[in-house]
Amino acid sequence: MIFHHRIFIFLSLPSSIKYMLVKTSVVGFIIVSFNLFSCVREKAKMVTSTDIFSGYCADQSASFFNVPPGMVSLFLDESKKGNKELKDLLKDVNELSFLIINKEVNANKDCQFYREINSRLDSISFYDVAQINTGKEIIRVKVDKERRHFNELVVMVSNQDALYCISFKGKIPSKKVINLVKPENVVAITNLDRFKQ
Known about the structure:
Strand content: 25-35%
Number of helices: 8
Helix content: 40-55%
Order of helices and strands: HHHEHHEHEEEEHH
Number of domains: 2
Strand order of the largest sheet: 1-2-6-5-4-3
Largest sheet: 6 strands, antiparallel
Number of strands: 6
Structural class: alpha+beta
C-alpha cells in the first residue's frame, strides 16, 4: 500500500522534478557502484612480502614459517656484536617470519632466486637501505617506505648453504634500523639462521 502511494506521489510531480529525481538516483547508483568496484579491484591488486615468500614454498624446496619475536630475544646474547641492537629492534616487532631456500636442492637457481625476490620486493615499494658483502655472505636490507617508522624490514642473506629472507613486521623506528644495519651490528641478523625449522 505504501509502495503504491509513493508511485502515485511520484507520478503526480511535474516532469522536470521527476527527471531530476531519476537522474540523481542513476548518478548516485553509478557512483556507489564505481566506488565498490574500485575497492574490490584495489584489494585484489595488493601483494605483500608474505605473498611473495609463501609462493616459493609451493614451487621450490623452501620453507616459510613464523617465530615469535619474544622467543628470539630470549636467545640473544647481548655481549655479542649487534645482538643488543637486534634485541632493541625486536621490541617493536609483532611478526617475525623466515623464508629459507636451501642451496643444496636449488644450487643452480640461487642467484636467480636472490635477484627475483629482490625485484619483486622492489615492485611493491620496498627499497634498499644497506648491502654488505662479508666475503662469506651477501646481506641486503630493505624497508617498505621511507618514513619515521617502517611497517616492515626485510633482510636477505645469501651464503653457501641457503638464501634466507627474514621479515620483521611492526612499527619499527628508523633510528633502530640505522643502528642495526651498521656493518659491525648486521652480523647479528645472519646468526638468526639457527631458528630454521
